[in-house]
């Protein structure tokens, strides 16, 4: 059987990388020939989880077509978030927990989308449905993905299935998920040794909203005031990135993982800034706004932006 790649989105997080590894393992057990790869280097949080459970980071690819004819996608479906030559390969499987947008194929495929807090929760269910045992180390990596995406089950995206998966996977991995989860999340909050340009690209996704190219980045911290001391430098980096890449609006969500509050920095035209203010019913003050309780890009940021831009 021809080999297929399995990968998550660009600027991969712990879900994108961890779930690619888990889904590749599952598909190989089901008779496919797959390799988990990545569309970028792991961030600090993901690197911590990989090392903790004894995994090497998947190799990074820039294009898929030179090596394979078909691919499987996890944790994304939108083409602009995928490999650069996604239009040159056949997509045979998708497992995702996001909105479906601008996605189409020439042939039928396996597509599973559920409104879970994490894609790894869906894959956990698939292991159970197929009666395939999850190895201890892989359970730890899948657990890490769910902790990351749900902010230790505190995100509003968290479902009962996510909670069940965390408890089951923690038992297999033989870890205290609350203790481990906080350490893992904190491992991803050290921003002092990174430039503003690096930080705004670590966890960023582009969205096509009614003809506008909107970039939404997020960084997690434990000290929000300290992060905002770099506000001017962040805004300058966001402006430069927008000019270089044609973004009509760039939003940076800075989230305190300890109290689940965020502040947003926004650059863009007067039109897109007005649409942002409409989306959140809040006024920007010097390109900044407080967003208490907002932690999820998928559930609390993209839907109101989509409604405002397309309304």
TrEMBL record:
Q: Which Pfam families match?
A: DHH, DHHA2
Q: Which InterPro entries match?
A: DDH_dom, DHH_sf, DHHA2, DHHA2_dom_sf, Mn-dep_inorganic_PyrPase, Oligoribo/pAp-PDE_c-di-AMP_PDE
| Domain DHHA2, residue spans | 181-309
Q: Where does this protein hold Mn(2+) 2?
A: 15, 75, 97, 149
Task: Spell out the GO cellular component terms annotated for this protein, sorted alphabetically and separated by semicolons.
Answer: cytoplasm
Keywords, ordered alphabetically:
Cytoplasm, Hydrolase, Manganese, Metal-binding
Which note does the record give on the cofactor?
Answer: Binds 2 manganese ions per subunit.
Tell me the cofactors it needs.
Mn(2+)
Metal-binding listed as a keyword: yes
Output the Gene Ontology terms for molecular function. inorganic diphosphate phosphatase activity; manganese ion binding
> What reaction does this enzyme carry out catalytically?
diphosphate + H2O = 2 phosphate + H(+)
Its Enzyme Commission number(s) read 3.6.1.1
The residues that the entry says bind Mn(2+) 1 are 9, 13, 75
Does the record carry Metal-binding as a key word? yes
Give compartment(s). Answer: Cytoplasm
Similarity comment: family membership: Belongs to the PPase class C family.
Q: What is this protein called?
A: Probable manganese-dependent inorganic pyrophosphatase
Q: What lineage, starting at the top, does this entry show?
A: Bacteria, Bacillati, Bacillota, Bacilli, Lactobacillales
């Amino acid at each position: 059987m021809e080999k297929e790649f399995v990968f998550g989105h660009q600027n991969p997080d712990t879900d994108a990388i961890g779930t690619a590894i888990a889904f590749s393992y599952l598909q190989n057990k089901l008779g496919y020939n797959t390799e988990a790869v990545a569309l970028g280097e792991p961030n600090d949080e993901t690197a911590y989880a990989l090392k903790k459970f004894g995994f090497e980071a998947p190799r990074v690819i820039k294009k898929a077509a030179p090596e394979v004819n078909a691919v499987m996608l996890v944790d994304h479906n939108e083409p602009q978030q995928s490999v650069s030559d996604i239009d040159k390969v056949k997509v045979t499987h998708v497992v995702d927990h996001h909105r479906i947008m601008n996605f189409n194929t020439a042939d039928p495929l396996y597509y599973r989308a559920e409104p879970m807090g994490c894609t790894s929760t869906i894959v956990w269910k698939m292991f159970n449905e197929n009666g395939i045992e999850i190895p201890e180390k892989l359970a730890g990596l899948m657990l890490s993905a769910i902790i990351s995406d749900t902010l230790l089950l505190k995100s509003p995206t968290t479902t009962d299935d996510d909670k069940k998966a965390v408890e089951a996977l923690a038992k297999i991995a033989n870890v205290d998920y609350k203790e481990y989860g906080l350490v893992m999340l904190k491992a991803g909050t050290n921003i002092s040794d990174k430039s503003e340009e690096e930080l705004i690209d670590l966890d960023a996704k582009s969205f096509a909203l009614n003809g506008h190219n909107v970039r939404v980045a997020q960084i997690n911290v434990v000290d929000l005031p300290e992060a905002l001391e770099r506000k001017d430098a962040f805004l300058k980096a966001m402006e430069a990135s927008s000019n270089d890449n044609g973004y009509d609006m760039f939003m940076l969500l800075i989230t305190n993982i300890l109290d689940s509050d965020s502040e947003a920095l926004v650059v863009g035209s007067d039109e897109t800034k007005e649409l942002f203010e409409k989306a959140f019913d809040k006024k920007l003050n010097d390109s900044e706004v407080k967003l208490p309780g907002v932690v999820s890009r998928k559930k609390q940021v993209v839907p109101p932006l989509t409604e405002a831009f397309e309304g």
